[in-house]
Amino acid sequence: MSFAHICAARAWISCSTSCSGNRWSTTARTAAAALDVALFHMDKSDVILRDSSGFNVSGGRTRHYGLEYERAWSFAQRWSAEASGTFARHEYRFTAAVEQGEQITAGDDVDTAPCGVHSLRLRRESPRLAAELEWLHVGHYWTHAANTARYGGHDLANLRVTARPREQWSLTLRVSNVFDEAYADRADFAFGDHRYFPGRDRAYFLELGWRED
């Protein structure tokens, strides 16, 4: 969850929201590696959000802060790796008892906002064959505004292999969710019950490509 998207949790209505924040970043680069790190802090006021019954709650305030990173490096001939992610805290800064008994308490975490989102990609490239293995991690988060129920997060692996038998032709195999993990694209609490939106099972995609020089 990047700094530009930290307001995505809980279906915020941004047109009625005011924000103030800061971002500090630094970059280090060599011939074989690059590192970008950023710290961010943002306060939001006059937030309008939806409670678990679908009703609007006005006058909300939240705080978001954390660290983002991107790292890329080449560690051997034809081998490279990239890593990126966010460590973040998203918290309520107001207290309210809303419809259906849902309780929002200042200092509690914003529900459906992961504590961390990370990815790691390992790549090997040659003139005729390229392969990439990707690991995706979504950290745990609360599914209820009262912080009484939690989704444990998940880890996924994806694979992409591209063969180029001729200069203008390519054949690509993509495998998503390689280990066929059961996970939720989203988990929350709504209309008096826990909801889990299942993610896609293992899936295969085959692509044939042609380009004109």
Structural summary, described in words:
With 213 residues, this protein is mostly beta strands. It has one domain: TonB-dependent receptor, beta-barrel domain (Maltoporin, Chain A). The protein has no helices and 15 strands. The two termini are 38 Å apart. Residues 1-16 have low confidence and may be disordered.
Short description:
The chain has 213 residues and is mainly β. Helices cover 0% and strands 63% of the residues.
Describe how the helices and strands are arranged:
Layout: E1 18-29, E2 33-50, E3 56-76, E4 79-92, E5 96-97, E6 103-104, E7 116-125, E8 129-138, E9 141-142, E10 150-151, E11 154-166, E12 169-176, E13 184-190, E14 193-198, E15 203-210
Antiparallel strand pairs: 1-2, 2-3, 3-4, 4-7, 5-6, 7-8, 8-11, 9-10, 11-12, 12-15, 13-14
Q: What are the main properties of this structure?
A:
15 strands, nine-stranded antiparallel beta sheet, globular, mainly beta, two-stranded antiparallel ribbon, single chain
Radius of gyration: 21 Å
Mean of residue pLDDT? Answer: 88
What is the helical fraction, as a range of percent?
under 10%
Tell me the total number of β-strands: 15
* Spans of at least 5 consecutive residues with low confidence: 1-16
Shape: globular
State the strand order across the main sheet. 1-2-3-4-7-8-11-12-15
